Q: What sequence folds into this?
């Protein structure tokens, strides 16, 4: 019997397999996070959602139970708010749109003034693809802000090349706060090709188990 040589690529998970992982279904990180407070959206993102202009559209990716969105809707009923989460364990229905879907496959209708992702990218396979999708959904003067761990990316050239490519695409990354941000819509690409993900990477800077995303150079 011929044994195929071991390759790290052979152990990488596809999106379907990854989304069935217990690491991705982690309920400890973000499920019941609120808008305000020590661990609230405003503090974690460094962005005041309630300061959005009248009738602004806000999309929150990996929204957990959606409690933070309900908090915002109560304080600012003029906002048009959509939340997307893979698990779909949402709080009681309210004046927000809550969608059960993968952020790597879901497509919105229209553009948004604000797109956020609080600690959700840690559990996404194609993290760089998710960044590009989120930026493409912005209005021309919209803002994208999310928690992002560059150490969760395995790519040719390492973190330095990844960050350089992101900066060239207009993303700003703060390594101290682990926040990534972009102002204005972006429909471009990055010089990487997604290969798959590893859910055995262990804890990241949050102390919670996370997913490592693996890339090759773009063809």
A:
């Amino acid at each position: 019997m011929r044994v195929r040589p071991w390759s790290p690529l052979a152990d990488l998970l596809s999106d379907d397999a990854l989304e069935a992982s217990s690491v991705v279904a982690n309920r400890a990180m973000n499920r019941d996070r609120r808008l305000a407070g020590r661990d609230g959206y405003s503090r974690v993102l460094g962005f005041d959602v309630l300061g959005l202009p009248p009738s602004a559209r806000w999309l929150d990716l990996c929204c957990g139970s959606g409690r933070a969105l309900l908090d915002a809707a109560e304080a600012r009923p003029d906002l048009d708010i959509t939340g997307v989460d893979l698990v779909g364990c949402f709080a009681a229905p309210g004046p927000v749109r809550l969608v059960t879907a993968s952020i790597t496959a879901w497509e919105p209708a229209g553009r948004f003034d604000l797109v956020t992702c609080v600690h959700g990218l840690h559990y996404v396979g194609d993290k760089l693809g998710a960044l590009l999708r989120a930026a493409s959904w912005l209005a021309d003067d919209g803002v994208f802000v999310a928690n992002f761990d560059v150490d969760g990316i395995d790519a040719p050239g390492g973190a330095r090349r990844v960050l350089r490519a992101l900066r060239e695409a207009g993303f700003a990354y703060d390594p101290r706060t682990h926040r990534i941000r972009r102002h204005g819509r972006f429909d471009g690409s990055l010089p990487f090709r997604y290969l798959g993900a590893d859910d055995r990477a262990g804890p990241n800077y949050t102390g919670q188990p996370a997913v490592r995303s693996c890339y090759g150079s773009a063809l």
About this structure: Helices lie at 15-19, 41-45, 67-75, 127-136, 158-168. The chain has one domain: 9-187.
